[in-house]
Design goal:
The complex is a heterodimer of chains A (49) and B (95).
Chain A lengths: L1 H6 L6 H4 L1 E2 L7 E3 L3 H15 L1
Antiparallel strand pairs in A: 1-2
Chain B lengths: L8 E5 L7 H8 L5 E5 L13 E6 L2 H11 L3 E2 L2 E2 L1 E4 L11
Antiparallel strand pairs in B: 1-3, 1-6, 2-3, 4-5
The chains are: A mainly alpha (49), B alpha+beta (95).
Chain lengths: 49, 95
């Protein structure tokens, strides 16, 4: 049973999902990925029509 | 519309009060070398920023990249706005 648990995907923490500044007090931040950028572009075009 | 000179300067809006100049520098240096950062502070509450900042890059390409990935991106749990500022008016011909 322990082996099965190990094979499971590790739980994602905040630090995996976001980027953290080294500047203190640290804050989290997250840029768009390519997909989200493309989505935003489409959205903008649709709005302009 | 024609763009005579592309601006290397971006406007960053909707920053939270936790964001400092150093944060802005660290985050936006991801997209290129930064030449200058302006982050105005509230006159009454000097420890707080006014929620926006200007960053000037060495190259216009960097400003575009920052705009691409950070407009709608998140900083300190809030979606921020980033846009390239209007370039200065082209110089008038001298003759």
């Amino acid at each position: 049973k322990t082996k099965e648990n190990k094979r499971e995907e590790p739980v994602k923490t905040f630090d995996d999902l976001f980027r953290k500044t080294t500047t203190t007090p640290f804050i989290y931040w997250l840029p768009l990925n390519e997909e989200q950028y493309a989505e935003r572009q489409r959205e903008n075009e649709r709005r302009q029509m | 519309k024609q763009e005579p000179t592309k601006s290397a300067r971006i406007y960053i809006g909707k920053l939270t009060r936790n964001v400092t100049k150093d944060h802005v520098i660290e985050i936006f240096a991801t997209y290129g070398e930064i030449k200058h950062v302006e982050i105005p502070f509230d006159h009454v509450h000097q420890m707080f920023n006014k929620g926006y900042a200007y960053v000037e890059y060495e190259k216009p390409e960097n400003a575009e990249l920052a705009c691409k990935y950070m407009d709608g991106g998140q900083v300190d749990g809030v979606e921020i706005r980033v846009s390239v500022t209007q370039p200065p008016a082209p110089p008038k011909p001298r003759y």
